[in-house]
Design brief:
Elements lengths: L1 H39 L2 H9 L3 H11 L1 H37 L5 H31 L1 H18 L1 H18 L12 H13 L5 H13 L9 E2 L6 E2 L4 H11 L3 E6 L1 E10 H10 L16 E3 L4 H11 L3 E5 L5 E6 H9 L13 E3 L4 E5 L4 H8 L13 H9 L10 E4 L2 E8 L4 E8 L1 H6 L1
Parallel strand pairs: 2-3, 5-6
Antiparallel strand pairs: 1-7, 3-4, 6-7, 8-9, 9-12, 10-11, 11-12
Helix pairs in contact: 1-4, 1-5, 1-6, 2-3, 3-6, 4-5, 4-7, 8-9
C-alpha cells in the first residue's frame, strides 16, 4: 500500500514539472521564432508598411535599429529559458526518474536518469524550441515579426541592464583581442544582388526584363564612356572647309540632330551644328544667308575614360545631349549621347530613323554573325568569351580585327584570323570600317579532332 502511495506521489510530482518544462520550451520557441522572423524580414517591406502608418511595422523598425542589442536580448531570453530548464531537469525530473528506476532495480539508476533526461530534454528543446518555430517563422517572417514586435520591445527594456553588462564585457574582450579591426559590416556586392535577382527569376518573383535592367544598372557603374561610344570612324562629321551646299546635303541625308564640325582634321573639332538651327533658315527662306560658322554651338569635351555614371550626371546638370571623347593624346576618339547612356540601362531605343539591326545573329551553336560596332565587353558577355576588354587599342570587334591586321580591309578582301581558339572572318567592310564579322567558336579544336 505504501509503495502505491509513493508511486502516486512520484506521478503527482511529475505533472507540475512536465508543465514547467513545456512552458520553458515554449519560451525558448518564442525567442527562437522572434529572432528568425526579425532577422529574415524584408526590411524594405517593413519600411513601406511603417511609412503607411502600420504601428507593428514601426515596432519592428525599432527592433532593427540596433540589431546587436536585439540579438543580445534574444540570447539572454534563450539562455535564461535553457538555464531554468536544465535546473528543473537536474534537481527534480532526473531525481524522480532515478527513484522510479531504483524501484524496478535498475543499476546506476541516478546516472542513467541524468543521461536519459538530458537526451530527452535536448531533443525536445532542439525540435520544439528551435527548429520547428524557426521553420514556421521563415514561412512569413514579416507577419511573425510584426506579431511579436511590441512584446519584444517590452522584453528588450526589461533585459536592458543585462544586455548592457554583456555588451560592455563583449566590447572589452573584442578590443583587447584586436578583433575589432576586422569587424566591419559586410557590404552587399553587385554579384550578391545579381545572384538574388537570378534566384528571383527562377522562382518567378522577378520578371526577366526587370532582371536585365537591374543587372544593366549595376554594370553601368563599372563602365567608362569609352565602353559605349560611337567610335571616331563611325561618327558622322563635316569639315567646315568643304563646300557648304555639299555639307548641307550630307546633313539632310543622314538624319542626325547634332553633327560635330571639324576644320582640316577630325582631331580639330570646332563646334556642333544642331539641325534645329538650320530649320530657322529653311522656315524663313534665307538659305542664301546661311553660314555654318555663325550657328556653331560649343562642343562638350570629356576624357574617354570618365565613368559612365559621372558623365550621365554631368550631362544632365549641364543639359548636354552629346559628349565628344578625347583620348590621352588629345585626339578625338568618339562620341557618346545621352541616348547611349540611357540605352545601357534600359536597352536599345529605336527611333523613327533607326534600323532594327541585330548585334548578334546566331547561325548555329558555335557560329555567329557579329555587327562590327558591337563592344568587346558586350560580345564577351553574350557569348561567354574572354577577349581582352582592357586594351587601349580597340573597343569593338571591328577594332580588335583592325588592331591585329594593322589595316582596314577593303570591300571584298578575304580576311580571316584566329584569336584564342576563336575564328574570325570579315564578311562586309567599306573604306572606313568593318561592318559584319563571322565568328566561330572552337573551330581549331574541331579541325584537330
Amino acid at each position: 500500500m505504501e509503495e502505491n502511495d509513493d508511486a502516486d506521489a512520484d506521478s503527482a510530482n511529475f505533472v507540475p514539472q512536465i508543465i514547467l518544462m513545456v512552458i520553458l520550451t515554449l519560451i525558448n520557441a518564442f525567442f527562437a521564432s522572434a529572432e528568425m522572423a526579425v532577422v529574415s524580414a524584408n526590411k524594405n517591406k517593413i519600411k513601406r508598411l511603417a511609412n503607411e502608418g502600420n504601428k507593428k511595422a514601426k515596432a519592428v523598425e525599432k527592433l532593427c535599429s540596433d540589431e546587436t542589442k536585439f540579438l543580445s536580448t534574444i540570447q539572454v531570453g534563450i539562455t535564461l529559458a535553457g538555464f531554468f530548464s536544465s535546473a528543473t531537469a537536474a534537481l527534480t525530473l532526473s531525481g524522480n526518474l532515478a527513484v522510479i528506476l531504483e524501484k524496478i532495480h535498475v543499476p546506476y539508476s541516478s546516472q542513467i536518469a541524468t543521461v536519459l533526461i538530458t537526451i530527452i530534454l535536448s531533443y525536445i528543446t532542439l525540435i520544439f524550441g528551435e527548429l520547428l518555430p524557426k521553420r514556421i517563422a521563415l514561412r512569413n517572417p514579416e507577419t511573425t515579426a510584426m506579431r511579436f514586435a511590441k512584446i519584444l520591445l517590452v522584453i528588450k527594456a526589461i533585459f536592458s541592464p543585462f544586455v548592457k553588462i554583456l555588451s560592455a564585457n563583449t566590447n572589452f574582450l573584442v578590443k583587447i583581442t584586436g578583433i575589432e579591426k576586422d569587424m566591419k559590416d559586410d557590404k552587399i556586392s553587385d554579384s550578391d544582388i545579381i545572384d538574388v535577382v537570378k534566384e528571383g527569376i527562377e522562382d518567378g518573383t522577378i520578371e526577366e526584363e526587370k532582371s536585365r535592367m537591374i543587372e544593366s544598372t549595376l554594370k553601368f557603374y563599372h563602365l567608362a564612356a569609352k565602353d559605349m561610344m560611337t567610335p571616331r570612324v563611325d561618327t558622322f562629321m563635316i569639315d567646315i572647309n568643304d563646300n557648304q551646299d555639299e555639307n548641307l546635303r550630307k546633313i539632310l541625308s543622314e538624319k542626325y540632330t547634332r553633327i560635330p564640325v571639324y576644320q582640316n582634321t577630325r582631331d580639330n573639332i570646332i563646334g556642333i551644328i544642331n539641325v534645329k538651327d538650320l530649320l530657322n533658315f529653311f522656315y524663313k527662306g534665307n538659305l542664301e544667308k546661311l553660314n555654318f560658322k555663325s550657328i556653331l554651338r560649343d562642343a562638350y569635351f570629356v576624357h574617354e575614360y570618365i565613368e559612365a555614371n559621372e558623365l550621365f550626371e554631368k550631362m544632365k546638370e549641364e543639359k548636354e545631349q552629346m559628349a565628344l571623347l578625347i583620348d590621352e593624346f588629345g585626339g578625338f576618339s568618339g562620341i557618346v549621347t545621352m541616348e547611349d547612356l540611357v540605352e545601357e540601362i534600359v536597352g536599345n531605343i529605336l527611333d523613327e530613323y533607326d534600323e532594327d539591326e541585330e548585334s548578334i545573329i546566331k547561325l548555329s551553336d558555335n557560329k555567329f554573325i557579329i555587327n562590327g560596332k558591337l563592344p568587346i565587353h558586350e560580345l564577351n558577355q553574350e557569348l561567354d568569351l574572354k577577349f581582352d576588354e582592357a586594351s587601349s587599342e580597340y573597343d569593338t570587334i571591328a577594332g580588335l580585327i583592325v588592331s591585329k591586321i594593322d589595316k582596314i580591309p577593303t570591300s571584298g578582301e578575304n580576311i580571316e584570323l584566329d584569336i584564342d581558339n576563336i575564328h574570325l572572318k570579315v564578311l562586309e567592310a567599306n573604306k572606313s570600317r568593318i561592318k559584319k564579322v563571322l565568328l566561330e567558336k572552337n573551330k581549331i579544336d574541331e579541325e584537330i579532332a
